[in-house]
Amino acid sequence: MKLGERVKQRRIDLKLSQQALAKGIATQSQISKIEKNELQPGSQLLFNISRRLNCSMDFLYIGDELDTQLEQKLKVIERLLEDRDYDALIPIIDGNYLSNGSVDEIAASKWVRSIIGYYNYGEVEQSLQMIEEAYQLIDSNMYVKLQVSICNTRAVFYYSQNENEKAKSSLEQGLEIAKRLNVDDSYQIKLLYTLSNIYASERAYDRCLAYAQTALDITINSSRYKLYSELIYNIVHSKIEMKISNDSDKKQLEVALFLSEQSKKHNITILIRDLMKLL
């Protein structure tokens, strides 16, 4: 069942008309299109719809398909973080979405608040303190994907503050957790990509190449291509700096360029085009 079908079924269960559901938050036409899966609602609209339907956003996104309540909540949060939809995240975090008092939910709340503070408000010191508090809560009983996500965010923050050793330590811990507990491949790819970026910034291109290539191998084997263009850039850039590039690298860049353009990733598209001039 798709999102629109869940919205419609929930509305019918509550004996609401489309007009009643739409009142004050959308038009009846928008609700109709959402229910037909002709319109993907923005995060704020979906949040308002979920409140009107007296259910969670995670129910509308994914129904009851996931194993735990926390996993459902994190699935929604991660989607909003990927979209950088901080305005929709703020009422979720400020409300009762993560409120059962468990260590996992406390850590998750601190993790998300640190990201909102860092990227939306530029509150660097407060965000570093918040992610450290979340990091200190990590233990073997914590939900594994949350452990890895906290490690990755902590690393990204410290890397952006030029504290590379702290960043590396956090990433290595995240990788150890991910490999030991067989976490979804996309999390390992993210960690390895961040590590490759750090070593590129240090001009340690052999290490950058090794981590980026490992991430690319996982990407291909798992068919998770979200960071494919970025990984190819790091690989070819490293090989050029090490003077070991070859003809196949240009073909790889062409594929990476095509995918980045299709995904409208403007920054990496520009970097790839500049790199292609060197081959």
Quick summary:
The chain has 279 residues and is an all-alpha fold.
Task: Give an overview of the whole structure.
- The protein is globular, with a radius of gyration of 21 Å.
- The chain is built from 16 helices and no strands.
- Among the domains are: 1-62, 434 Repressor (Amino-terminal Domain) (Orthogonal Bundle); 66-182, Serine Threonine Protein Phosphatase 5, Tetratricopeptide repeat, CATH 1.25.40.
- The relative contact order is 0.05.
- Helices cover 73% and strands 0% of the residues.
- Residues 7-60 form the HTH cro/C1-type domain.
- It comes from Mammaliicoccus fleurettii.
- This is Helix-turn-helix domain-containing protein.
Quote the average pLDDT: 90
- Total helices: the number is 16
**Structural class designation:** mainly alpha
The coarse silhouette is: globular
Number of distinct beta strands: 0
**Are there runs of 5+ residues with pLDDT below 50, and where?**
none
Main β-sheet: number of strands, strand sense, barrel status? none
Looking at CATH, which topology of the domain at 66-182 would you report? Serine Threonine Protein Phosphatase 5, Tetratricopeptide repeat
| Rg calculated over all Cα atoms | 21 Å
End-to-end separation in angstroms reads: 48 Å
- What is the CATH class designation of the domain at 66-182? Mainly Alpha
Order of helices and strands: HHHHHHHHHHHHHHHH
**Strand-residue fraction?**
under 5%
CATH architecture of the domain at 66-182: Alpha Horseshoe
**Helicity level, as a percent range?**
over 70%
Reconstruct the topology from this structure.
Blueprint: H1 3-13, H2 18-22, H3 28-35, H4 43-52, H5 57-62, H6 69-82, H7 86-94, H8 103-120, H9 124-136, H10 144-160, H11 164-180, H12 185-201, H13 205-222, H14 228-241, H15 247-262, H16 266-276
Helix pairs in contact: 7-8, 8-9, 8-10, 9-10, 10-11, 10-12, 11-12, 12-13, 12-14, 13-14, 14-15, 14-16, 15-16
